[in-house]
Write a structure and sequence with these properties.
The complex is a heterodimer of chains A (115) and B (117). Chain A contains no helices and 11 strands. Chain A is mainly beta and 115 residues long. Chain B has 117 residues and is mainly β. Chain B is 0% helix and 53% strand. Chain B has no helices and 12 strands. In chain B, the strands form 3 sheets. In chain B, strands 2, 5, 6, 10, 11 and 12 form a 6-stranded mixed beta sheet that branches. Classes of the chains: A mainly beta (115), B mainly beta (117). At the A-B interface, β4, β5, β9 and β10 of A face β5, β6, β10 and β11 of B.
């Protein structure tokens, strides 16, 4: 399967714990995005990488959130000291190569539940 | 500021009916890109179409068609002869063409389409 892959698909954690999600983009894509989606809402942009450089971060990305893409391939999104409000679907997408006028392809998401 | 509005929260139709999903956008960019995505119950967002701001040609793909009108800032999506498998949440999205907005897809809140047999 050459689509965007996310792991894990589901994560249940206790409030205050740290969690880390992984995203493997489509191999030839140089841009990678993280979004968050809550029930009944559209996805909200969190952050964006071009190769290994993090070019854009949303105000939604508080200090407890950190994303990395160390070698310009896979990416991780870490949430420290999770709160119940962090419960959501976390979506990863990739696009490219080339200019920005290309569509983003999404993974199946990681559903986080903070109890 | 960029914004996408999908005024229809939920639509219910009977199979074989035609249905149009509305999308209105706001942007100050002169170059921008519009998208439609489908999110079935499985949760994965499926890309349907991309339209560039300088290309106002309407597009038809099988039972799907899209009507892009810059004059009204609308990018509407029509499904002809709907089928049960079309049941999903449909999102319209906007991406700017310059500067910091290049990476950021702005999504509407989505329209939930239910097609009943």
């Amino acid at each position: 399967d050459t689509g965007v892959s996310q792991d894990p698909r589901h994560k249940i954690t206790k409030r205050g714990q740290n969690v880390t999600f992984r995203c493997d983009p489509i191999s030839e894509h140089n841009r990678l995005y993280w979004y968050r989606q809550t029930l009944g809402q559209g996805p909200e942009f969190l952050t964006y990488f071009q190769n290994e450089a993090q070019l854009e971060k949303s105000r939604l990305l508080s200090d407890r959130f950190s994303a990395e893409r160390p070698k310009g391939s896979f990416s991780t999104l870490e949430i420290q000291r999770t709160e119940q409000g962090d419960s959501a679907m976390y979506l990863c997408a990739s696009s490219g190569p080339g200019t920005t006028n290309t569509e983003a392809f999404f993974g199946q998401g990681t559903r986080l539940t903070v109890v | 500021a960029q914004k996408v509005t999908q005024a229809q929260t939920e639509i219910s139709v009977v199979e074989k009916e035609d249905v149009t999903l509305d999308c209105v956008y706001e942007t100050r960019d002169t170059t921008y890109y519009l998208f439609w995505y489908k999110q079935p119950p499985s949760g994965e967002l499926v890309f349907l179409i991309r339209r560039n701001s300088f290309d106002e040609q309407n597009e038809i793909s099988g039972r799907y068609s899209w009507n892009f009108q810059k004059s009204t800032s609308s990018f509407n999506f029509t499904i002809t002869a709907s089928q049960v498998v079309d049941s999903a949440v449909y999102f319209c999205a906007l991406r700017g063409g310059y500067g910091g907005s290049q990476g950021n897809l702005i999504f509407g809140k989505g329209t939930k389409l239910s097609v009943k047999p």
